[in-house]
Amino acid sequence: MIRVEREEREGVGVALVILDRPEKRNALTPGMLTELVSEAERAADRGDALLVAGSGRVFCAGFDLAMCQASPDGAVMRLLLTGLSDACRALRTLDRPVVIAAHGAAIAGGCALLGGADVVVADRGATLGYPVVKLGVSPAVSVPFMRQSAFDGATRTRTLLPETFTGEEAARQGIVHRLEDAADAVLDAAREEAFRLAALPSSAYAATKQWVNTLEGVVARRDDERGLEASLGLTGGEEERARLGALEFGGPGGSSGGGPS
Amino acid sequence: MSELATLTFDGPAAELRLNRPEQRNAMSTELLGALHARMDELEAKSSPPTVLVVTGAGKSFSAGMDLKQVIIEDAGGVETPRALLASLARFTHRLRLLPSVSVARVNGAAIGGGCGLASVCDLTITHADSTMGFPEVDLALCPAVVAPWLVRKIGAGAARRVLLTGGVMTGARAHEIGIVDLLAESGDTLDDTVGSVVQSLCSGGPLALRATKELLNTLDGSIDLDVLLRGAELSASVLSSDDAQARLRARRK
User: Fold this and answer.
1) ipTM summary value
2) Per the count of CB atoms within 10 A, which of A43, A108, A215, B147 is most buried?
3) Domains within chain A, CATH numbers bracketed
């Protein structure tokens, strides 16, 4: 459910990693998150920049909630939360540039992934957000990464208030870094960004990225772990089980990912 | 005295109202005492409200510290303003640590400590035409108690510009720079905006909200009371200066 297309221009490589499950709005499974990390590491080993995108109408609707619902003891949710934290951290600490093309929608776990990117491109009208507290799930796992790109007030609002917001608002708050008018222009714009960054001197890029990570405390893993623990602390509990269990999924081929729409 | 701040409950939501409208809800020793008493009641509840709306009675949210009580010759020494500032510091800390998600309904002017109170809340909502800001430096005062909250909320760079340039701004501008999280178009639609936010928050799982808020408070340093009390000392020492006291006396006339 992850597809990789390597692109090369004048000796510069970009690994386009596509979340490829359009019939489920690219809802994340534990396996997809593991694959994302290994593809990211493989790309960096080749010296490529990483461009993460989604196939179909939206970037990513979040966790596969149907899978979570079918696992009432919380085992799948635990794997997803842990996989998400690991993926955000892997993207953040990758020596090579990471660009995400967040077209259409990036919800819940899909929005959390944006916290791992160096540059996020979205359309003005894209739908973003973490409406997961409605499901009894805490987006705490995303907080350590989000507060490194957005200011803390924005992080607080976005993680506590279970509402979506637009790409334009996300750009004001530092979650999105380049806006396009139309969703179908996002991938090309993100590709431009990825090739531009990929062509920069790689040792300077890596040193600068890791220094900023050090200053932000990314290398000190404590905050990531605290966030993950706070989310895991609710998993399998009564509130989450009741709310997740009550979730009904849309029509054929409808949404199985992300928060309730 | 307790009617200086009122606390009402409505299902999973509660409202804490500063109730000194004739003084634009300026925070006096007595008003802060009433706020602490209401906080005692909230903290004593076995199941705290999911959401706490903080607002002001009348046209203003809060004009900030009661400047009459910080004129040392009237207050009978520096101890009164020092205690007032420490009381504000402790109240902001208690509000932030409350398990309920706090929402500032900034119905009108939120100035100085009033703007600080709005910034402590988890979400700050106002309308485009309200007046907000930190004009302390204009008055030879130092907004040291509320500065940590503003730095946390909008980042050190933006907070530096706001606190060191003084003055006031519209609610629309406060939204642009992140002091305000959600903006209603006008005072007429403020309650609709606040109502839908409260409803949305109440649709969240209380445990999920609480776990998320606790983590936010841990990571951004909100649990640190000491920095606020040091801020209160700094603020008290700046306002004791001859310059500040002369300006405060001149304003009184």
Assistant:
1) 0.89
2) A108
3) 2-245 (3.90.226.10)
